Amino acid sequence: MAHLSDYLSGNHYTARVKSTQRLTPAESEEIREIVVEVLDSNFQCNVDQSFGVVVRHKSPFGNSVHHRFYSIADLPDTSSEFPQITMLVKRCSYVDEFSGERYDGIASNYLCDRKVGDEITVTGPHSLPFVVPEDKTANIILIGMGTGIAPFRTFVKHIYKNVKDWKGNVRLFYGARSGLELLYLNDKDGDLTNYYDEKTFEAFYALSPKPLWADHIEIEKIIEGKADEIKEMLSKNNCYIYVAGYGKILHQLDIAFSSILGSQEKWQTRKSELIAGKKWAEIIY
Predict the structure, then answer these.
(1) Phi-psi category of 264—alpha, beta or left, where left has phi over 0 and alpha has psi -120 to 50?
(2) Are 151 and 268 within one domain?
(3) What is the C-alpha to C-alpha distance for residues 264 and 241, in angstroms, rounded to an integer?
(4) Same domain, 113 and 145
(5) Same domain for 179 and 45?
(6) DSSP code at position 24
(7) How many structural domains is the chain composed of?
(8) Would 134 be classed as within a structural domain?
(9) Helices of type H across 114-246
(10) Mind listing the pLDDT tens digit for each residue in 238-277?
(11) CB neighbourhood size of 166 (10 A)
(12) Which of 85, 105, 127 is the last residue in one of the domains?
């Protein structure tokens, strides 16, 4: 198992902020799309890779370095002198369960505060478990929550722009707290809607019934709503399921897939087969 020191001892690159744009309105949680150019032409970060951001800070626990990983949120731009990569960043904070004090997320606030022209330190590229199958007839189920849409936006664009002639079904299930936080599938920025005319692609989304109360997003319901199709996809040997989001999503998915297959035992057996065949991958935060 890799440790933080392993990543920090690798290559470090200086990157400059090219653009930073808030995607969500002021009345919702802040999510920004940030584009940086890495000031080294040798740096490459592909669809199946991620990169790290290093933040120097003073920690009450004695740590002086914070390292946070990000998936690329768009196809890398290699048309200019220096490679450009895109990330989605949600400004985060958390409440200490013992003291009750609120603390700002280190990397998220650091990045959301950067201005155009500011320089940051990045590492990588690092591996990402979401690999595009060589089999173009493979069926792929993508399930993302919040900024977990980032790797799947890149994934879908890569399949239809670069791989092309995809024959298998690609189904994207996306959960957001409200329509204001529905990234790349809204009226203002509907980047993924450009692929609705692809015969093999469909996208579905779930919103929280009470976004101001932070109720959980019932993504399991939209998945169960496609039960017949998903059951058919799961019956094939070339079915892949990729998941990105917060930890609670795994419990919701167990509920949904157990319902679709008829029992928890059947789902756990099928999930074990997917994992063994490297056809189940997840990034949980």
Answers:
(1) alpha
(2) yes
(3) 17
(4) no
(5) no
(6) S
(7) 2
(8) no
(9) 149-158, 219-224, 227-234
(10) 999 999 987 788 999 999 999 999 999 999 999 999 999 9
(11) 20
(12) 127
Q: What is the pTM of this model?
A: 0.87
User: What Cα–Cα distance (Å) separates residue 41 from each residue in 83, 84, 115, 166?
Assistant: 6, 10, 22, 31
Range of the domain at 52: 4-127
Following CA atoms 206, 209, 214, 215 in sequence, which dihedral angle do they give, to the nearest 10 degrees? Answer: -90
Q: Which of 64, 95, 127 is the last residue of a domain?
A: 127
Give the burial string for 271-284 (b: 16+ CB within 10 Å, else e): beeeeeeebbbbbe
Give the burial class of 214: count Cβ atoms within 10 A of its Cβ; 0-12 exposed, 13-18 middle, 19 or more buried. Answer: exposed
Domain match, 178 and 257 both:
yes
pLDDT digits (tens, 9 = 90+) for 163-183: 999 999 999 999 887 666 778
d(CA 277, CA 131): 13
Q: Are residues 194 and 92 in the same domain?
A: no
Report how far residue 186's alpha carbon sits from residue 44's, in angstroms, rounded to the nearest whole number: 30
Give me the residue label for tokens 């220096």: 82
Please calculate the CA angle 146-143-260 and round it to the nearest 5 degrees: 135
Name the residue type at position 153. Answer: R
d(CA 14, CA 174): 33
In a domain, 202, yes or no: yes
> CATH number for the domain including 68?
2.40.30.10
What CATH number is given to the structural domain containing 236? 3.40.50.80
Write down the residue that tokens 């290559």 correspond to: 11
Q: Which residues contact 210 (CB under 8 A, 6 or more apart)?
A: none
